[in-house]
Design brief:
The protein is mainly α and 111 residues long. It contains 3 helices and 2 strands.
Length: 111
Amino acid sequence: MNTKAPPSVTVRILEHEYQVQCNEGERDSLIAAAEYLNQRMNAIRKKGKALGMERIAVMTALNMAAELLENRRSGGGGTASSGKVRTLDTGLNDRLQQLQLRIDSALSDER
């Protein structure tokens, strides 16, 4: 049986490009997630003193995981650290988790 691999998308995070495979119809979500991750990682890099890529990634992941857990505890509502109201449904949370796993996998493949 000849199965074709899903198409890959190039995303840029902290001046590094990564090829990430995604299923049809998921490209826009993957790009949006990568842009969000890039913004969050850049914010941590700007706050820290010469942090390495791995440490920035771990700190970003911890912050995002804490926000996700807080969002789940509050039933999908709540405020982010920036003060903006966050309204994520369960499907979007699940999708973000899947994309985060793919990004983590791509980062580990680059090492």
